[in-house]
Amino acid sequence: MKSYNLLVITPATVRPMILSNTLISFNEYLFLRDYNENINVQLAIHIDPVGEENRTMLDVTLTAKRHMKIDWIYKNYEEQHSLIRAFRRLWEYAAVSDFDYIFYLEDDWQLLRLINLQRMIDLMEKYPNLATLRLPFRPTAEKWSKNWRHLFPWNGDYFYCPEEDKPHIGWCGHPNIVRKKFVYETAMLLHPNECPERQMKGFWANEMSQIIMKWDYGVYGYPNEKEAIRDIGRQWRNEHNIIKEKDTSWRIA
């Protein structure tokens, strides 16, 4: 069986317990299963100094090292810190890495059930035009997966994004496996001060939209399954009065 190298890229803030819960759940249900012996999983993490006052970026570093094999750590000591800057650094790093596939995982998602990583890679191999395959955040139905108000039909292997919906939600920041060529093509076009999810759309007649529209996108899973992921960061931000601005910078209310 062919071996694969998978790079998990994670933008993180100073919330070591949140990160720990995320990595524990993804290791247990996805990355460290016995049938994934031929998949080498490593982590690249970007840490912004925003979060719990009694914790530091060192705490986050130690948490990451405790749970995963580390390929790269970037600690941001700049005055400005935001998701887009973290995303862009990680995206650019992944684009020129030696890994076969990328897995985008923000630091505040919990995986709720078993997911077959080998099958996700097999689908990426089977469908060479598939740019991303993300995990479902809602239960799937018999014939489709609902993504906000958009319905992704079941094609027998995965739930695919219709052509007319690619400009809206082809790319999404939910946990997903990503083709490295897609990362490479989009990395050079990312603006350092604009939200990545807003930039990676197909609404505008520009180079980014041409790339977005030529690729396919999907949701992993089978019909009639429970949701696979849960956002565990929103409540934490509300409790700590930390607001994510539209430009993805962090502000303490």
Can you characterise this structure?
There is one protein chain. With 253 residues, the protein is of the alpha/beta class. Helices cover 32% and strands 27% of the residues. The strands form 4 sheets. Strands 3-2-1-4-10-6-11-9 form an 8-stranded mixed sheet, with helices on both faces. A two-stranded antiparallel sheet has the order 5-12. A two-stranded antiparallel ribbon has the order 7-8. The model has no long low-confidence stretch (mean pLDDT 91).
Structural key phrases:
253 residues; alpha/beta; Spore Coat Polysaccharide Biosynthesis Protein SpsA, Chain A; 8-stranded mixed beta sheet; 14 strands
Enumerate the spans where pLDDT stays under 50 for 5 or more consecutive residues. Answer: none
Q: What is the terminal-to-terminal distance?
A: 52 Å
CATH topology name: Spore Coat Polysaccharide Biosynthesis Protein SpsA, Chain A
Name given to the CATH homologous superfamily: Spore Coat Polysaccharide Biosynthesis Protein SpsA, Chain A
Whole-number total of structural domains: 1
Major sheet summary line: 8 strands, mixed
Beta-strand content? 25-35%
Radius of gyration: 17 Å
Strand order of the largest sheet: 3-2-1-4-10-6-11-9
Q: Name the overall outline.
A: globular
The chain-level structural class is: alpha/beta
- Averaged pLDDT, please? 91
Instruction: Specify the CATH class.
Output: Alpha Beta
Oligomer: single chain
Helical content stands at 25-40%
Q: Order of helices and strands, N to C?
A: EHEHEHEEHEEEEHEHHHEEHEE
Instruction: Count all strands and give the number.
Output: 14
The total of helices stands at: 9
* CATH architecture descriptor text: Alpha-Beta Complex
